[in-house]
Amino acid sequence: MDALTLFGLFAVTAMLVCYALEDRSHWFVLLFAMSCALGSAYGFLQGAWPFGLVEAIWAVVALRRWYLRPR
């Protein structure tokens, strides 16, 4: 497994974990947004720009959810 594949595996695993835990704390929503940004970077780095674009949109949506979520 090369470094780029490991980076992508880390990004999508972090997304999954943070999404599963986001009811516990608003910080998991923020971590989910950051994980989506990492997933987006992975998509663009591997040349799958549609994946990178969709993950970037998910990151913005998650950031908005974090911002609007009661603390």
TrEMBL record:
Domain of life: Bacteria
Transmembrane segments: 44-63
Keyword terms of this UniProt record: Membrane, Transmembrane, Transmembrane helix
Key word Transmembrane helix present: yes
Protein name: DUF4175 domain-containing protein
Lineage: Bacteria, Pseudomonadati, Pseudomonadota, Alphaproteobacteria, Hyphomicrobiales
